[in-house]
Predict the structure.
Amino acid sequence: MDCIFCKIISGEIPSEKVFENDKVLAFKDINPMAPVHILIIPKAHIEGADCITQETAALAGEIMLAAKQIAKSFNLDTGWRLVSNVGEDGGQTVRHLHFHLLGGKKLATELA
Ligand code: AMP
Ligand code: ZN
């Protein structure tokens, strides 16, 4: 499949992994927007948050648990942000569900 993140999962494209279990992978964003900028993705190819179904909804919870663990491992004790862009207007450029975990500075509050 022609999906950058599936290629990262398979190892075809290298990445700087920070967390992995049987369902979820997390790696450093290649173009960081904050001192800590991690992408957390399901290993299953789901195109975006708009494509989550009853059958795959539990993966979102797995991602949340991974986020909490990663935030702790990066010592983001004073807070962090988890964001998922969806579709063209949401600014999604890679159509494989991913959450941006951002932290390491006081983040801007504007969301739009
Ligand atoms: P989005 O714009 O929400 O779809 O986010 C896609 C993110 O993937 C962007 O922040 C990119 O910097 C990041 N990205 C694209 N290619 C790679 C890659 N090969 N390794 C790590 N991050 C990547
Ligand atoms: Zn994919």
About this structure: Strands lie at 17-20, 24-28, 36-42, 80-83, 99-103.
